[in-house]
Known about the structure:
By secondary structure, the protein is of the alpha+beta class. The chain has helices spanning 2-14, 192-195, 252-255, 332-343, 346-381; strands at residues 20-24, 35-36, 46-49, 62-65, 70-82, 88-96, 102-104, 107-110, 127-134, 137-146, 149-152, 165-172, 177-182, 185-191, 203-205, 220-222, 238-240, 262-264, 276-278, 290-292, 306-316, 321-329.
Amino acid sequence: MKTAALLLALVGIAFADPTVYFKEEFTSDWEDRWVQSKHKSDLGAFVHSSGKFYGDEEADKGIQTSQDARFYGLSTKFEKFSNEDKTLVIQFTVKHEQNIDCGGGYVKVFPSDVDQTDMHGDSPYNIMFGPDICGSTKKTHVILSEGEENFLVNKEIRCETDVFTHVYTLIIRPDNTYVVKIDGTEKQTGTLEDDWDILEPKSIPDPALSKPEDWVDDRKIADPTDEKPSDWDEQPAEIADPEADKPDDWDDDLDGDWVAPTVPNPEYRGEWRPRMIDNPDYVGEWEHPLIDNPDYKPNPDLYKYSFGGVGIEIWQVKSGTVFDNFLVTDDEEAAEDAVTQILSAQAAEKEAKEAQDEIDRAEAEAARAAAEAEAEAQADAEPEVEEPVVKEDL
């Protein structure tokens, strides 16, 4: 009987319903759930908006950064949970419709004790994930916290840089593997141990060994049979400019002897160096032998955290980013379904962008024409100045 009950319990665990820990689509009452940090008095404001172009104005509303050159700090809490023995999926959308040049588009997932009213850049978090663009930097951050340190992923994950909505998905599994997806397409995968420098390395160079003194690792050597030509040094590096002439107003008594300026000598061949040949004694690059690191300790719980909140803590030079469709769950299929639904609206968003571009071009052309007409009108309105009549003396 006890065996049957245990089997039923195990089956129940295996087929437990997936859980959505947090979901936010920014309905009209979103401000009831989110808290603005007061760490700084001049933090930027988020507004409820779908941006300048969208597929469905109401359905596509998220929260948009609205002030240039500002830090932003906004967070919300949800019921505390642990992802122990469970898959963790963090997903959200970002639309940089302002064609961002420098600014973050990432989110931070916090433990439950985060101080929302004082949230700032140094507030402890568990995971930071999402795009970051500034100049040539165009990356997707995946930063994991361990103890009091934050560790960046050591692989390059490029982010999207256009003005449309994109879905960013991070999956962390109990076997310490991870996947990063953008718009449902896998961009990076690996293990938490290999792709973050959280643990001590498994192997280290053997401290008892060093490169032998007679080890030859120079691929090339100077040809001992090569000799410098006897006339090599006859030409100086610079010569008097043959096209220079002493100025006509040069006074030798006052100005001293005139000396022509120098120019690079086209005949100068530079410092002589013997030609290089293959080194017959070359044995290859010396590789330091490795040994097991006595300080290495595996950690099967690298993936595991306790969560209780999510926030946006970023800096942007140019505002206009729309955040939306937040999802924290243990259900990869639910996240994939959400991605499919979001991407289905991208075509309408792109059509709306093209229509908006046409409107912008028409408005710019109308403004230019109006400015030209005003300038012409002002020129026509200016009175003509009569030339004064000059009387000739009789």
